[in-house]
Design goal:
The protein has a five-stranded mixed β-sheet, covered by helices on one side. It has a two-stranded antiparallel sheet with strand order 1-3. It is an alpha+beta fold and 214 residues long.
Length: 214
């Protein structure tokens, strides 16, 4: 990844693009809240307006909380994160659209920050693999020694997100932008955590794995 000048970002560029990604994720529900308030101001469809405000506020809240864990500092340098927090963030994130079922298996443990952030970002990649919804099975193993993460995404039109494949294989030729920053960050986290990412495609499922470098 670092040998391609198109895939080399400065610290400020990385921060700016991640901020753009977070803003992209929450601008729609925040805009919907504003629309609901405008409906209330006009005095019409009060029940519909309140339903819109409640669902949109929930959507914005869970996405921000997820982003805090997946992209934020989440404590001081060298800190660890409880995988129970990650599990809750994943379930809440999926509940916001009601189109993806989550199955989470594995012990609860305190794991190095970058490894948990990698897990959450790999979840986003798996989530992007089933644009029409479906299910994602997440298995956590060997958390106390050398964590291994396995995520299986099942659904209609399942596929590995193209940007992720191009970045992972080093074949992306265009500059990193707000659309490709999340898979870039996923691969970067794997490097920082000393883990290797793999993906395999089946007839109706895609499996993503993250395991210690050999």
């Amino acid at each position: 990844m670092a040998t391609n000048p198109n895939l080399t970002l400065t610290g400020p560029d990385l921060a700016a693009l991640l901020c753009s990604r977070v803003c992209h994720d929450i601008i729609s529900p925040v805009g919907a809240i504003n629309n609901g308030l405008e409906l209330l101001d006009e005095g019409g469809a009060d029940d519909d307006a309140m339903d819109l405000i409640r669902s949109s506020a929930h959507n914005a809240s869970v996405r921000l909380k997820f982003a805090r864990l997946a992209f934020g500092a989440s404590g001081s340098v060298g800190a660890s994160i409880d995988t129970g927090e990650a599990e809750k963030a994943v379930h809440d994130f999926a509940s916001a659209d009601n189109k993806t079922e989550i199955e989470w298996n594995g012990p609860r443990a305190i794991v190095a920050k970058n490894k948990v952030k990698l897990l959450l970002n790999l979840f986003l990649v798996a989530y992007g693999a089933i644009p029409r919804g479906g299910s994602i099975s997440i298995v956590l193993e060997d958390l106390e020694t050398a964590p291994v993460f396995t995520l299986v995404a099942r659904g209609k039109m399942v596929r590995v997100p193209p940007k992720f494949l191009e970045i992972q294989s080093g074949s992306l030729t265009e500059a990193i932008d707000a659309h490709s920053i999340q898979p870039y960050y996923t691969v970067l986290l794997a490097q920082e955590a000393g883990m290797n990412i793999g993906s395999t495609v089946g007839p109706d499922e895609v499996t993503f794995t993250a395991s210690p470098d050999p």
